[in-house]
Model the fold of this input.
Amino acid sequence: MGKTAEITPAARTEKITYAVRDIVVLANEVARGGKKMLYLNIGDPNKFDFQTPRHIIEATYQAMLANKNGYSPSSGIKIAIAAIERAASEKGIDNILDIFITSGASEAIDICLTALVNQGENVLTPTPGYPLYTAIMNKLGARLNPYYLDEGNSWQPNLDDIASKIDEKTRGIVLINPNNPTGSVCTQQTMQGIIRLAREHNLVIFADEIYDKLLFDDKQHISIASLDEDVSVITFNGLSKAYLVPGFRIGWGVVSGRRAVLGEYVEAINKMLRARLCANHPEQHAIMPALEGDQGHLRQMKAKLTRRRDMTAEMLNSFPGISCVKPQGAFYAFARLHIDGTDDDFVGQLIKETGVVVVPGSGFGQKPGTKHFRVVFLPPEEVLQEAYTNIARFYEKYAARQ
Done:
């Protein structure tokens, strides 16, 4: 018989974590004990009272009936790419060099970082920020280089902090706008500052705009790529959030800037696109109907989310020991905890004792010495009311124990 020694996984997996899903392991364990669970952890609108628009489903169904079930071109089908280009142009993005469709925006982000960053190099990532970026950077053997969002300034990127962390091995800057987990929206002034730094140091801006249609209080989203036609930007978006089909796994990237600067990089991205074949084919036929068809569901969705955002900010800010900057977009809030312990411990005990599932701030990164937790305010108001009340009661007990 052969050797039976344990098979060791690759070292690159050691630091990969994804707090949004990792916390589910504990939640599932608690749920098996019969406790009522209130899930405020995953940004999936379809798990609550949000329905996919029928014309998007119909477009996919008709494509399948028409046998559009084989491989598509690696970059995506022409009619979908044309619709994405029109949508980008309407937002003022010029000098478009390439557009490609991927299995969710997550795959686009992974491919673009992988095609750019060598081992030991770094990309500036927002902190707090979506944990996918740090997971990919760890996989690539890159050096993590977080920049801080300023909680005292509505979670705006700190331009001085960004500038101080750029070095000879910095390749890009990630901007998540609106931001996950804070729900903040970047101002035009801040984006102009990021553009100046990117141009000065020849960096690629990775603009994650998956929540661009989910802004509150009549705010209008500005794409950073629209502010300077020469800056190197890859704008990520998709159908998952605003069009209520996260399970379709349809996203895309739009490359804009100067061909003389980006040409070789664009070809590297396309090498990777060809190597992985293509994104889901039938679902690509939903892109044009989604972007150019009836947008009525967005009005309804934003009306619901506005009520739930307002309730979230009001209740969390009314509790002693908890404070929360009011979100301006997306469907997340990043509440600050004024405790002596860690947010990991607080969230773990919260889940065990109340069944309310949130995600600790450490899973998204945060300024040292601060503690937070992220809530998703997609659930109906009665669920949020119960969950927030439970959080307040638990906080009193937790603080007393400390």
About this structure: The longest strand covers residues 96-103.
